[in-house]
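Sorry, can you check?
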Amino acid sequence: MSTAIVLYDIPSKLPINAWSPTTWKARYALNFKGIPYRTEWVEYPDIEGLYKTFGIPASATQKDGMTPRYTLPLLHDSSTGAFISESSAIVEYLDATYPNTPRLIPPGTRALHAAFIAAFESQMQAITPLLGIPAVNAILSPRSAAFVRKTKEELSEVTIEEMDLHGEHRTRQLTVVKDDLGKVDKWMTKGDTFVTGETPTFADFVMSAWILFLRISLGEDSPEWKELSSWHDGRWGRLVKFFEKYEAVV
């Protein structure tokens, strides 16, 4: 019998294949809930066609507010016919449709989750100069890498190599990332791994997805990752270590 749920993701050259923090949020949720699913890999230039094949509206718009933007993750549940894009919407759907699985957004916490996630991801903006397009392009499969290079270089009028930070510029940007994560650390109770105390919720999966992206992009054996994982009494290293049990890519 075929699996009802398909999670669409962007492939890479990595052994684990998965890399995107936005899709990791949804994958973590599926693995944590124990819901059977399978991954279908979609190259960057094929994402728009995927949406149009299924007759699904664009998941977002460009900064001009009008031009459609097609993004992953996208989840298809053939048992209900639903297509859901954007990780928070996917988690809300899974909580509602599969109520006998562990709930990730507890009742009455939807607004709090939205506020926390928005605040956390605003603190993660400093990783874009450090690990943005150059880092992602380096791990993408060749076809996606060529597409990203062409589109981003045309838009920015500089090469991807010129976007990459080196030397003192990189060191300074890593310090900014540390300071921003330090602000998040101060939101949390000292010694607690999770936002709500002892039980992980979607907010924790979001944080771990971004920290996992840092581990993947920097390289697990790199001095930068070893330094980052020790910041703030090792909070970030402990967090992503806890969620390793939900890193299966199926």
Residues 167-187 form the longest helix (21 residues).
